Amino acid sequence: MNAPIPIRVQPGAANYFLHAGALDQIENFFPSATLKQVLWIGGARAQAAATPYLPPLYTDERSIRVTFSGHCSESQVQDLAKRGSQADLVIGLGGGSALDTAKAVAHRLQKPFIAIPTIAATCAAWTPLAVWYDDDERALGYELFPLASHLVLVEPRILLAAPPEYLRAGIGDTLAKWYEARVLCQKELSLPFTARLGLATAEQLKDILLADGPAALQAVSSGTLTEKFLGVVDAIIAGGGLVGGLGERYTRIAAAHAIHNGLTVLPETAGFLHGAKVAYGILVQLALEEKHDELQRLSEALAELGLPTKLAQLNVDFGQVDKIEALIAHCLRAVESIHLLPGKVDPLRLRQALHTVEAL
After folding, report:
1. What is the C-alpha separation between 244 and 250, in angstroms, rounded?
2. Is the confidence at residue 139, as pLDDT, over 80?
3. Chain centre distance of CA 187
4. Phi, psi of 100, rounded to the nearest 5 degrees
5. Which one of 107, 150, 260, 330 is the catalytic residue?
6. Chain segment 65-88, per-residue pLDDT in tens
7. pLDDT at position 4 over 80
8. What CATH number has the domain spanning 165-358?
9. What angle separates helix 347-358 from helix 274-288, to the nearest 10 degrees?
10. What is the arrangement of strands in the sheet containing 16-18, beginning at the earlier edge strand?
11. pLDDT digits (tens, 9 = 90+) for 210-250
């Protein structure tokens, strides 16, 4: 039997903290007296949410605070790298777009990076990669960086106060880890041990999220910090990132994320979060795999979690042929991960899968 092709294993952040007061760890790893300049990159709402918990360094005269909006694009990264060219530390605050951008800037400057997620919508704080967009906010692909975050600091009180749709999106994005990793791994005759670890972790994440996701969302609604809320946050940020880092190409993305990418070309979906689109993409992937019983069960679970199960819930009219054809064309670009599924995925097969999901 042929040995598996070697992979690059990047388990994740060098240091990870999830507890009340976690942001105080910055001083322990990077004493302010040793820093000449710090570049902070974050959205306006993220910075406002984090301010009560941030250390004095945030308002120090050595800090450059940049308000970020949009997605991780070449123009954004170039501009921010120029503004922070003298920084010896880059700190990102916010969701996936802000953190991906800050990671890319830290990579350009060759400086250490600290991630402070203010929502639990993705594993962006953990993963050493950035998803790139063009200036029209269309997804282009992702880039892996040589080094992961030096620190990931999660203050749960910030995440608990965030709107519940962010946690929903995080659950959707992280559920995809299992469904996509499974299809990537099942076609291999032999898997590296770390890929098998990643696959097993992905299955555990799926079980945790489906079992405890509703309770975690209830914790957000009531403003109560619970063990199930903390467990779901851990699963999204640390667990979700760990899966891809352990298995590399065996445990990253397949059809669900390709469907997300296709949805980004439809302007009416711009207001929906990454994980919500990915959640719908899982259903389409299951339809492509013809796993109809599993498709039905997951559709019901997503509905309970408040995640989309129909295109109409993403403001897309399935009856608008031009919209569906644009979605299909983007999903089927040669660079898209949908082609990692067994068999040829052509427009007819994808169109039928979309119809299957809509007909549930």
Report:
1. 8
2. no
3. 25
4. -60, -45
5. 260
6. 999 888 899 999 999 999 999 999
7. no
8. 1.20.1090.10
9. 110
10. 16-18, 151-154, 113-117, 89-94, 38-42, 63-67
11. 999 999 999 999 999 999 999 999 999 999 999 999 999 99
The Cα–Cα gap between 215 and 238 comes to: 19
- Catalytic pick among 71, 107, 150, 257: 257
Stated pTM of the model: 0.92
How far, rounded to the nearest angstrom, does the alpha carbon of residue 155 sit from its chain's CA centroid? 18
| Residue of 100, 173, 212, 234 marked active site | 173
Contact 137, 166 (CB under 8 A): no
The CATH label, of 3.40.50.1970, 3.30.70.270, 3.40.50.970, 3.30.450.20, for the domain at 16-161 is 3.40.50.1970
Please say if 19 is a catalytic residue: no
What pLDDT, on the 0 to 100 scale, is given for residue 1? 46
* Confidence label for 2 from pLDDT (cuts 50, 70 and 90): low
Of 107, 150, 274, 330, catalytic: 274
Cβ proximity of 37 and 64 under 8 Å: yes
Angle between helices 164-186 and 193-222 (to 10 degrees): 160
173 is catalytic: yes
274 is catalytic: yes
Domain ranges of the chain: 16-161, 165-358
Would you state the pLDDT for residue 118?
97
The token duo for 188 is 């291999």
Residue 60 to residues 35, 42, 223, Cα–Cα distance (Å) = 11, 16, 31
Output the furthest CA–CA distance in the chain (Å, rounded).
62
Hunting for tokens 């350009």 — which residue is that?
Answer: 108
Q: What percent of the chain has pLDDT over 70?
A: 99
Mark whether 150 is an active-site residue: no
